[in-house]
Amino acid sequence: MSVAYDLTQEQPQVKSGAPFEAQPETQTIATAITSSDEDNILGERLTRLALEVAVSADQIKDVSQISLQDLEQFGAFKSELASLRETTAEISSNISEASSVAAEANSDVQNSKSTVEEARLEIDRLIEAVQASETRMDELSQAIDSVGDIISVITNIAKQTNLLALNATIEAARAGEAGRGFSVVANEVKALASSTSDATTQIEETLDEIRRGFQLLTGTSKQTADTAFNVGEKTGSFCTILDTVSNAMETIDRKTGIIDQQMGIVNETCEEFVTITGNVAENLENSSATLNETAKVMRRVADEGDELVLITVWAGQNPIEKVIVDKAGEAKETVEQMLHQAIAAGDITEAALFDRKHEEVPNTNPKQYIAKFTDYFDRNIQGLIEEIVASDERIAWCAPIDDTAYIPTNFKKVSQPQGDDPVWNMANCRNHRYFDDPTGSKAAKNTAPYLLQTYQRDMGGGVFVPMKDISAPIYVNGRHWGGFRIGYTP
């Protein structure tokens, strides 16, 4: 909180909500100050105290903001940790499920292994049966060959018998009537030989067909035996594969069990860490809240220190500070006179002065803006600014500010054209910009005769310069336009 005073009156003018509400106490303080033998000591000490308190308040506020940022990041970390805990729980569940599936698969593999082993034994028995059948087929083929040999003998006998019958017929024909009976016997023998020959021919044909059938059956049996043997070998290989798969399943089941135990430990650790982070986050939140309240208290103390400094100026106990305060009052009166004369002369309109639709300048960083009154201030107020800055080495800058915290014209040294470096621009291009920080906003809105503030000036790139700011409001035709600010080093 800041308080503004009218140095032309006997008593300080306190803004609404100011801590100094009892005028008798203020009079007592003023009287005590007036009776002091060392006129400048009190003002200097109050100025130094206000500066130190203001800097400390800003630093505490910065620490509070950093704590809030850390708290936000810690909250995000806590959220990620909770997500990790859920993920580990899900992984653990999946591992348990995988372990169960692996156990079932291992059981299925064991059952399959038993079934395949039984099939392999059956195939082995089939191979033995086929091999035995093949042996019997060879024996039967040999027996058929033996029958073929016998038939050959019978065929030869039939041929010889037929030849003998033919000879007997010839001899019976020579014998005439006496050999007629022998001729009948010879014909019968010949007929028997012919029948025997026909029978052996049919038997040979049948044996050939049987032999061909046995040859085909033997080939098929051999092929079946070879196939059964190959199947047996494949079955053996499959049993080996099943053994490998079974061992792998057992290993997987064992490893997933170990992983599940480890995930349980991780989950417990996450639970403990969540509890710890929750406690730390609560402590951070409480510390940040405490720092924030402390910063507010320090800011109030700093504002009260500024009030006391103005009291010393008003009481004539701070002539060094009074020089700067007087310059602010004189500057504000000069600007008001210039604006009234400009409106009367038609150099600028009151509507233009109070227009607040400032246009953004493209490609500027930080952003710069042009108001309808910017050109007038650049042409006419710039000289006053340079004169004030040159009048006292403590003055770092001064500028008018409208009630939206817009500064159209600033000290030339800090009114350079912008470059490519935003940090450099922040420190060296401080015209045509909004300065709506707490200090700037208070100066823009202040309607009391004077407002003294101690603050840290942001020069960009994390650089802050301790500064005091004295401002006086500017009125145009009875309307509050803004104010005139002077920034100076304590």
What keywords describe this structure?
490 residues; alpha+beta; Helix Hairpins; Beta-Lactamase; four-stranded antiparallel β-sheet; two-stranded antiparallel ribbon; 9 helices; 10% strand; rod-shaped; disordered N terminus
Which helices and strands occur, and which strands form pairs?
Elements: H1 23-34, H2 39-175, H3 180-314, H4 319-345, H5 350-353, E1 359-360, E2 369-370, H6 374-380, H7 382-391, E3 395-402, E4 406-407, H8 422-428, E5 433-434, H9 438-445, E6 451-460, E7 463-476, E8 479-488
Antiparallel strand pairs: 1-2, 3-8, 4-5, 6-7, 7-8
Descriptive overview:
With 490 residues, the protein is α+β, with helices and mostly antiparallel strands. The protein folds into 2 domains: 198 residues, Helix Hairpins; 171 residues, Beta-Lactamase. 71% of the residues lie in helices and 10% in strands. The strands form 3 sheets. Strands 3-8-7-6 form a 4-stranded antiparallel sheet, with helices on both faces. Strand 6 and strand 7 form a beta hairpin. The longest helix is centred in the N-terminal third of the chain and has 137 residues. It is rod-shaped and about 195 Å long.
What is the H-and-E element order?
HHHHHEEHHEEHEHEEE
**Under the CATH scheme, which class of the largest domain?**
Mainly Alpha
Our Rg estimate from Cα atoms comes to 61 Å
Which structural class should the secondary elements be placed in? alpha+beta
Termini gap: 19 Å
Sheet of most strands: 4 strands, antiparallel
Strand content: 5-15%
Overall geometry: rod-shaped
Number of strands: 8
- Count the DSSP helices: 9
How confident is the prediction overall: mean pLDDT?
76
Task: Identify the CATH architecture of the largest domain.
Answer: Orthogonal Bundle
Q: Give the strand order, joined by hyphens, for the main sheet.
A: 3-8-7-6
Give the low-pLDDT segments: 1-37
CATH superfamily descriptor of the largest domain: Methyl-accepting chemotaxis protein
Helix content: over 70%
The total domain count is: 2
- The CATH topology of the largest domain is given as Helix Hairpins
